[in-house]
Amino acid sequence: MDKSELRKRRIAYFSMEIGIDSKIHTYSGGLGVLAADTIRSSADLNVPMVAVTLLYKKGYFRQKLDMQGNQQELSDEWNPKEFLQLLPNKVKVTIENKDVFIQAWEYRVQGIGGHFIPIIFLDTDIDENSDYFRSLTYYLYGGDQKYRFFQEIIFGIGGVRMLKELEYAQINRYHMNEGHSSLLTLELLKEKKKEKEPVWDIGGVRKLCVFTTHTPVPAGMDKFPYDLVSQALGEFIPLNFLKEIGGKDELNMTLLALNLSHYENGVAKEHGKVSREMFPGYHIDSITNGVHSATWVCDSFGKLYDKYIPGWKNESFSLRYALHIPKDEIWNAHQEAKANLIDYVNKEINAGLDTQTFTIGFARRATAYKRADLVFYDYKRLMNISNNTGKIQFIFAGKAHPRDEHGKELIKKIINLSQQLKNQIKIVYLQNYDIELAKILISGVDLWLNTPRKPLEASGTSGMKAAHNGIPSLSILDGWWIEGCIEGLTGWAIGQAQEAESSDKDNANSLYDKLEHTVVPMFYRNQENWVSIMRHAIAINGSFFNTHRMVLQYALNAYLD
């Protein structure tokens, strides 16, 4: 890239994971996929951005499930030489009084109009480093607390230094996508200190920084004991000063980012409110997440949009014109996507699913608060609905974090139920959920189910992807669905909006009531109304819950001076 092109880049987007391609194993789930969609839309919209992340040569993990539902975590190693370009530049950071050298790889995300966004992958696996320091960019969310903090030094401090080394000289916004990268603020403070001795120029750094939080509970935020911070960073920043801006008792990466950013936001309206309650006195705005429309629309719907809404790929707002697409063509496009999904599932696990049966999809990280098993709370009632109202089949997917035993038990529970209920309701759990499987699944089911424990869903984006393919949601009113649900028009709500917290029993009964009295009867006996809801899911939710709209909001609210 020539230097004049580098000088145009004014926004540095830092994300600990970026899921740009299922073959590049630098993501675990929603945060990384959202980051990639943000970058794609920025490329389409000619936003002058450069992105920074870590390389993770050994990835996250590849999931294998046995017949009992036990999750095995297999190696997920990949070869960056197949996808990325190694750059000649190197920088170093100091950890435990030792120099750690960092090299960089580049991947270019091409936009529709020819503009591209470079992603810089930081890598410590080089000869100059000890074996331990070489390993720091091996694993996504791996290792102990020390390993994680060292990674965040490389990411935040090393990331700023690498951008300077690569001559990205005009960066005037550093966008921290979650708190993992907030050590970059310390590097910026040090730079400003050289210019304005002896003052710490907090105001100057705030002008440069933007922070997006994705966490609705304090327990989900990165925090590190100051003993570890001092051991790792030494006198990089005086400890008393760091405690003023990063937390009195431990270094809270979210608090550090909040104190050193001029603009902060949550990822849905409700999440912004929850974040303000967690951090009183901070003006935390909200920009609701989206998805990259052209990436997540399946082939059959893409052809339909090309026919009736030309230009939709770069003007996602125009999906509102889906209301004019003939209903029979929407139904036929869906049947094509559904056949693709059912064929895939049957080939993978010989499940015996069929295209005529009402198919419900659920694919999330397997963890307790997402309640993948809520639909089986009273499985006898569920069987009664399937036997007497209309046949139902389920497709589940999702990984549990290697240290999340509750999440692993959820997977086992669903797979055991699938064997127990196989003569009544077909239930499958697909292994190794990734981007490619997500594209098949979210476009091919008839209904998207989401049952998080309220108020723990910051946003969620899987239902947005489904909506782009005409798939309505049946979901808890939390995260984005509070904004996206128009009852009986774009989908259906589980529970009541005014509920502050979730009750398993009440939510399950609401879920069964909707399935039994509204959703399943409409699917089987009123196709006209069902396809009308599909059209509105596209026209209302698809046209708004996309990253083109989201990136434009960031540009107006956070990036522009």
Explain this structure to me?
The chain folds into two domains: 7-290 and 551-559, Glycogen Phosphorylase B (Rossmann fold, 3-Layer(aba) Sandwich), CATH 3.40.50; 295-545, Rossmann fold, CATH 3.40.50. Helix content is 42%, strand content 18%. It has helices at residues 3-8, 30-44, 131-134, 145-165, 184-195, 202-208, 226-233, 239-246, 253-259, 269-278, 293-296, 299-308, 327-349, 379-388, 405-420, 435-444, 462-468, 481-484, 504-525, 527-544, 547-559, and strands spanning 11-15, 49-54, 62-65, 71-74, 85-95, 98-110, 116-123, 173-177, 209-212, 223-225, 250-252, 263-266, 284-286, 358-363, 392-397, 426-430, 447-450, 473-476, 491-494. Strands 5-6-7-2-1-8-9-12-13 form a nine-stranded mixed beta sheet. Strands 16-15-14-17-18-19 form a six-stranded parallel beta sheet, with helices on both faces. The longest helix is centred in the middle third of the chain and has 23 residues, at 327-349. The radius of gyration is 24 Å and the shape is globular. The two termini are 26 Å apart. The mean pLDDT is 95.
Enter the CATH topology name of the largest domain: Rossmann fold
Rough outline: globular
Question: Judging by the overall fold, what is the CATH architecture of the largest domain?
Answer: 3-Layer(aba) Sandwich
Given the structure, what is the number of helices?
A: 21
Low-pLDDT segments, ≥5 res? none
Distance from first to last alpha carbon:
26 Å
Number of DSSP-assigned strands: 19
Question: How many structural domains in the coordinates?
Answer: 2
Structural class label: alpha/beta
Helix content: 40-55%
Sheet with the most strands: spatial strand order: 5-6-7-2-1-8-9-12-13
Largest sheet: 9 strands, mixed
Overall pLDDT? 95
CATH class of the largest domain: Alpha Beta
Rg, alpha carbons: 24 Å
CATH superfamily of the largest domain: Glycogen Phosphorylase B
Strand content: 15-25%
